[in-house]
Every structure is written in C-alpha cells, then in structure tokens.
C-alpha cells in the first residue's frame, strides 16, 4: 500500500533554471521585443499594470554559465527582498547575479534596476524535496514610490493563521498558460488563489515535499503559479496592508494548468528567520 501511495504522488519540478527559468527568460525577452507582447505565466489570471503589485520585484538572473533566467521576489524594505532559494541555487544551476526590477510592467525594460549578488539562502534549503525554499536578497537602497512599495511579514494573530480557505493574490512575470507563448499586452500578471489545507496538498505531492512550512493553493479550474513566477509573492490584505503569506516555490512537473495545487514557502513559518535579516 505504501508503494502504491508513493507511485501516486505528483512529480514536483526540480532543477528550475534549466527546465523553466532559462527558456522562460528567453521567451519573455523575445515577447517584450515583439509588438504583440502580453506576458505572464500566472495561469488563469489577467494582465496588471506597473503599480498594481508594487511589492513585486522582477529578477533577471545571470547564472555562472552566463545563461539568463528569471524569477520574482517581494520587497520587504528599502534594502531587502525575499525570494525562493531555488532562484539562487536550484541544486544544479548556480546564479551569479540578480538584477532586481522595481516598478515595471516589463521584465527586460523600464523600471528601476539594481544589481546584487548578496543573497542568503535558508540554511536548511533542500534541493531534492524543496523544503525551506526561501532566501533574502540585500541590495542598494531603493526609495518607495507609487509603483514601488513593500509588503509586510505577518505578525500578531496572523502568525497563528494557516490561511486555509483564504483568497490571496499571486503575481509574477511568466507565461499565462502551458501552451501559449507570451501573447498580447503586458508582462506583469496576477491571479486570485484559494489557500487549501496541507492535508489536502499532501495528497498531491506527498509528505516529503509538503511539510508544516509549506503553504498550498488550489489549482481547481486550471489556475495557479508557474515557471517565471518562482520566488514571487502570495499576499493578502489585512489592516490596510499587503501581507506576504507565501513565496512561490513549486508546482507539478507536468504543467501549470492540470488542476494541481501550487506550493509556497509559508511565510509565518519563516517570520523570525526573515525578521532577523531585515
């Protein structure tokens, strides 16, 4: 019975840069050069302007091989942001530099751009099962504007909330579907996603990859995060503030639109780790 259960587990996407990030960066760049540009790999979502998710920072990533990859991150202060650890090192591919893109609807043009290689991955980041997939980026000071703003880390009673049933916003820069390239309008995209219990998510991905510090959202209806959204924000609004509850981590290796959950690093689980670094 255990063997049967193991076989039923959904494969998770590993070695992000070679499987997703590098081809995604190339697609986004080509699309932004084209006139029919659209742009995101948030699936089942819609295009959004530069100021709609001002806490979203695009990451244009230079790997040690010289290849270009792409992720997202979330601004936490004028000098710190949080992303997925796999955006810096995915188990096979090592980043050399992040170019942070602030306040732009597009990834490869516009906005405020700052380069850094100051990235601290979680000490227990596991590239095999994607546990503790979180990292802090330190960069030179960037001021807040109407299109550049921070999100806050959960505090108080929110630290004890598992958010199951809550609707939250994910935002990122990737394709909009498994089959489409990047089509006709705008780079930055967003989607509403409903948080599910870890007990439900374990049924999809198993207990090695879905642990207490994982947060999942329902993929029902073919919505979710994918590819170029890695490292980006899952936020709720509470007390008039944008509160970060998840950092985009992984999905099914079979694609984004097959109804499988999307998985995130659960920010409440890492709140003390993050706060000690910002």
Explain this structure to me?
With about 280 residues, the chain is an alpha+beta fold. It folds into 2 domains: about 15-140, Thrombin, subunit H (Beta Barrel), CATH 2.40.10.10; about 155-270, Beta Barrel (Thrombin, subunit H). About 15% of the residues lie in helices and about 30% in strands. It contains 4 helices and 14 strands. The protein has a 7-stranded antiparallel β-sheet. The protein has a 6-stranded antiparallel β-barrel with strand order 9-10-11-14-13-12. Strand 12 and strand 13 form a beta hairpin. The N and C termini lie far apart (about 45 Å). Belongs to the peptidase S1 family.
Strand-helix topology:
Elements: H1 2-8, H2 16-33, E1 46-47, E2 56-63, E3 68-75, E4 80-83, E5 95-102, E6 112-116, E7 118-121, E8 135-138, E9 167-172, E10 189-196, H3 198-205, E11 214-217, E12 233-238, E13 241-250, E14 262-266, H4 271-275
Antiparallel strand pairs: 1-10, 2-3, 2-5, 3-4, 4-8, 5-6, 7-8, 9-10, 9-12, 10-11, 11-14, 12-13, 13-14
